[in-house]
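Ticket #4471: structure export looks truncated?
Reporter: QA, pipeline team
Priority: medium

Steps to reproduce: submit the single chain below to the structure queue and open the exported record.
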Amino acid sequence: GQRAVEVNVVRVFTDGAGQFGNLLGIVDGSAVPDSDRQAVAAEVGYSETVFVDDFGAGRLRIYTPTIELPFAGHPTVGTAWWLRRSGYDVRQLVVPAGTLQVTTEGDVTRVRARVEWAPCFAWHQVGSPTEVEAADPATYPAGHHYVWAWIDETAGTVRSRMFARAMGIVEDQATGAAAIGFTGVQERSLEIIQGKGSRIMTTWDGDGWATVGGLVVAEPSSAVSW
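Actual output as written to the record:
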């Protein structure tokens, strides 16, 4: 018979007005056995769904509609914010890739991760933010493609979009792991405007470490059956 589970929903990397961002589903891991998690993530249909296996310790696993990820940015930032809002004093998260330190500065939630935990992206620099906005996802083949241009190189502001059809994501609205990886490539702190207007802030900490952070807002929860 069918089973149902509640999906808590947040939007991660919004702008200052709470607009844009990337939807994330957060599920109590005890409600879904490992063997069913991929099916639940596909049913939820967001670029990622998180299953929290230990709320107090911040232990979780991350699924796209098609695969499990050892690390991702928007799911960890979103889950850190949601756990804190739910009353847990979360100083770290534990994902298959390793342990992430969590910090909160005002309304900004950040996680600190190794640059090499990010997937391998193809970085496509184009001439202007307008060219980024005109990019056609269909022209980019399998793999993870990050199309970007400087808005202001001196200030470290970037316009970007990310396409990853093989992961079941035609276009991702805000990709924290890509922001971490790109911060490692540039070796500098950045502010990234991705997709339709999501905002992602990074710091370069050196020695292969970077942080990624932003604003998160809650959405009404939903339920899925499988």
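Status: closed, not a bug. The export was complete when the record was re-opened. Leaving a note from the reviewer for reference: The two ends are 9 Å apart (CA to CA).
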